[in-house]
Design a protein that fits this description.
The chain is α/β, with parallel strands linked by helices. It has 10 helices and 8 strands. Helix 3 packs parallel to helix 4. The protein is flat and about 100 Å long. It starts with 6 loop residues before the first helix and ends in a 10-residue tail after the last helix.
């Protein structure tokens, strides 16, 4: 007769062995799952980085559209025009020069959606468009307005051969402004003493914590008037006899795209596709817009806003 005294122990040992085996298999399966997810996320990261590289490199973007025999070049002017924005003169002018140097470019569209900005940056772009037009008379330049083409945006548009707008676009605002705040009365109410030392009689002009002197006010107004006249001269140079006589034309007012055509501020209604297809005759549009690389854009978003908040006022602005 067999001895069954060790049977429970063997059953126990078998159960533990099965548990250990199952845990080991589960660990292997978990590692496999983790490996698969790791590969997936690495591929996803690689695709993301490639997409960023594509977006940050205009040359890579253009290469996907350059099989056509001829095409229309597009340069975007978006947002506030300033020395540190996407609509800075360096970027716009670089895009324009590259477009003119491309043998396949039949015409150029400068597409504008801007409330304006720096008169200096706008003037740079205006002058360069005029210079390049004279140098390349066989390549027309059209300004196409989307939502808004005001102040500095219109300054740039005036340099083009023709301007096309949507009937609901906002166009005009040919004027100059400089704004700020005055806190001297608030400081007096709060009992705050202003301790300002300068070398130069008018060095503290437009200081927001000091009263605005009449001489300072007149000096700034004279400065604004001169910049306004420069703006008006540029518009007249660009638009010529197309401008209709209207006392409000250079007052800083703005109009709908439909009204701007009637006033001679624009030449007709139409978007980029219409201009490329019907006027330039090259329906394929290739983007020559220059922009910041992704890293610079990220760094700027982290800290650029802080400095501007500390400024007491802004310089002259075509807005």
């Amino acid at each position: 007769m067999a001895d069954d005294s060790n049977t429970p122990s063997r059953n126990k040992d078998g159960w533990e062995h099965d548990l250990i085996r199952e845990l080991a298999l589960e660990s292997v399966r978990e590692k496999r799952r983790a490996r698969r997810w790791g590969i997936f996320f690495k591929l996803l990261l690689a695709a993301y980085l490639l997409a960023l590289l594509f977006l940050a490199n205009p040359d890579l973007q253009r290469s996907t559209h350059m099989d056509a025999d001829e095409y229309t070049a597009l340069i975007e002017v978006k947002g506030v025009i300033s020395a540190d924005s996407e609509a800075r003169a360096d970027y716009v002018v670089t895009g324009l020069r590259e477009a003119y140097e491309d043998d396949k470019v039949k015409g150029i569209i400068v597409r504008i959606n801007s409330p304006g900005g720096s008169p200096v940056q706008s003037g740079y772009i205006f002058d360069e468009i005029r210079r390049l037009r004279e140098k390349h008379e066989d390549i027309p330049v059209y300004a196409v307005v989307t939502d808004m083409c005001a102040s500095g945006g219109y300054y740039i548009a005036a340099a083009a051969d023709q301007i096309y707008v949507d009937k609901a676009s906002i166009v005009g605002s040919i004027g100059v402004l400089m704004n700020g705040f005055g806190f001297e009365e608030a400081m007096e109410e709060l009992g705050i003493e202003r301790r300002l030392m300068t070398a130069g009689e008018h060095k503290a002009i437009l200081d927001p914590f000091s009263p605005l002197e009449e001489f300072d006010k007149q000096h700034i107004q004279q400065l604004l008037n001169k910049i306004h006249q420069q703006f008006i001269s540029a518009v007249k140079e660009g638009r010529g006899d197309r401008l209709q006589h209207n006392d409000k034309l250079f007052s800083g007012l703005f109009w709908t795209g439909e009204e701007s055509v009637e006033l001679g501020l624009a030449d007709g209604l139409g978007g980029s596709s219409y201009v490329a297809r019907e006027l330039i005759g090259a329906e394929e549009i290739v983007d020559f817009t220059r922009s910041e690389d992704v890293l610079d854009r990220f760094i700027k978003k982290l800290g650029a806003g802080a400095a501007s908040m500390l400024m007491g006022g802004a310089g002259p602005s075509l807005r």
